[in-house]
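Input/output pair, single chain:
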Amino acid sequence: MSASGGFLPPNRGASGLAIARVIADPDHLSRTFDDALRALAAEGLPVALAQMLNDEGTVLEFSFPEGSPQRLHAALVEKFAPCDVLVGADTLAPPHLFVSDMDSTMIGQECIDELADYAGLKEKISAITERAMQGELDFEAALRERVALLEGLEEQAISDCLSERIEPMAGARELVATLKHKGAHCVLVTGGFHHFADPIGEMLGFDRVVGNRLGVADGKLTGKLVGPVVDSSVKRSVLEEERERLGEGALVLATGDGANDIPMIEAADYGVAYHAKPKAREAANGSIGAGDLTSVLTLLGIDHSDWVAA
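Output:
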């Protein structure tokens, strides 16, 4: 930390190069490597340096003298898919702030879709969810429409859904625990509901949870939301608020999968799209398309020996 209270990330700004890491099957990397270098150079993205970072031959690091992180990310995904990729403007290092979406990112389900199954409405509601996550529908309008369909459902269905249907995404516990061990402040911010997000956030170890609130009366859902809606703009504002609190130089990692995650993905130093919808992936400078959430730790340069099992 600097004397003024901000952060001085390792080597930040020292090289002027963009740094990228790619994780893929070693046979796949070796087969595609030469062709990928030629193709990148032909697209105006010459590689200054390429080196293998591990003995297994699964992690390849590139230095580029030019190219925006988003453009480099897209090019590397195209050349090496299926793969996991992260590009930093001038460094790749553990973040001081981690902000993540919940549904289909930290957990393997969409909570509202699973809850809708208890009302016999999963097919109808999941179709709306998918269109909203693809960016085809206004998020708030789609959310209110789906919540209205749940009017009259017993509140007990939420507890049943949590215990019977909701599971952490592979690597979620290790990711949060390791980043916290490295000093990161971890925030779960979701367009879903506190009924789910609070216990999930506690289970995974998040320091703060931000989400929407379902209306409940006489033990049943009212079909309404209580308070303002957590949408894409709120996700980004939470990220900016937390970054400002940490001070100048704080590195920020954000993960998400849907269109409503795009503003926070774009605002982060490391915006990682996790098995994401196309629009979210296009906005990111990192993506997990092959592995699980522990790939984020590898891409950040955190050695496996430093991972925290949760």
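Confidence is low (pLDDT under 50) at residues 1-5, 7-14. Residues 26-42 form the longest helix (17 residues).
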